[in-house]
């Protein structure tokens, strides 16, 4: 769709203000998607980004893992209340008794008490994992299930856990007969969506490079090349290691928006409601908020492995969703994405897009 001049001006201004290499956004409505974008693939070269470039989604990958779960539930291959140790009995011997009744729904909603594994230091004490990705995923799960559970802080509903999504992925693999990677491949082939696993430039050095500040005091962002040592552990992919072009991810989000508006598409409207709003605070792959003005439900998620940032938010009551992507993962990236979302929403509600 054609770009909106006001939206493009907003993006250019915000990108310049926060000194981001690149910034892109999608304005998603039930029947159309519009895009604005600008900047460069890496900040030490002038090559501009293209709309079809791949950006890392980080933890917005969790929405994909939950969608896979929703489809398998609809197909009768697993239930939301299926227990981890019943579905993956190979983990039973390793698991502490406190995890006996953990279910698929608990894992996807961060209510299983699984250790977070959200910081690099969490992985430093792991034993050496060997074999295929699926085998290492199982070994990782056995280690995690020997660790004591964590409880939510007072007044909180959940403890965010990347490891919990790895356990959920094992359940989906056992129930379907396909690895998580194969499930993603089959699903995205059916939906005609493009993706890669890991940082985009590891597949093609001409794709956008992620950026970070080497130290907090640095004023410039450092681009991370394809051979840079930093990458995510592949067995953790279900929690946050997909990359997609903005139009493909936007079309996926559009399916969710239409589902929340009552349309059955890849899964049923009822399943979309469960994924987004089935529980308070965090449902299944989506955080839950409300509009301050009306109390209407809002669904959102942020994703970053430190070198890219993705901000996704759906406003079903206002029939619109937004995706913001940038190839920097630092604090300015989040501030820029939030500022752009606020401005685009304002333009949308004023009919100026």
Can you put this structure into words, describing what you see?
This protein has eleven helices and eleven strands. It is an alpha+beta fold and 353 residues long. α1 runs antiparallel to α11. The strands form three sheets. A six-stranded antiparallel beta sheet has the order 2-1-11-10-9-8, with helices on both faces. Strands 3-7-4 form a three-stranded antiparallel beta sheet. Strands 5-6 form a two-stranded antiparallel sheet. A hairpin with a 6-residue loop joins β8 and β9. It starts with a helix and ends with a helix. Helix content is 35%, strand content 15%.
Q: What share of the residues does DSSP label as strand, in percent?
A: 5-15%
Largest beta-sheet characterization: 6 strands, antiparallel
Derived structural class: alpha+beta
Count of helices?
11
Q: Are there runs of 5+ residues with pLDDT below 50, and where?
A: none
User: Helical percent range?
Assistant: 25-40%
The number of E-state strands comes to 11
Structural shape: globular
Strand adjacency order, main sheet: 2-1-11-10-9-8
Q: What does the average pLDDT come to?
A: 96
Rg from alpha-carbon coordinates:
20 Å
Series of H and E elements: HEEEHHHHHHEEEHEHHEEEEH
Short description:
The chain is an alpha+beta fold. The protein is 35% helix and 15% strand. The chain has helices at residues 5-17, 61-74, 84-87, 104-108, 133-144, 162-176, 180-191, 237-240, 246-260, 269-277, 331-349, and strands at 22-28, 33-39, 54-56, 196-197, 211-212, 222-223, 242-245, 287-290, 297-303, 309-315, 320-326.
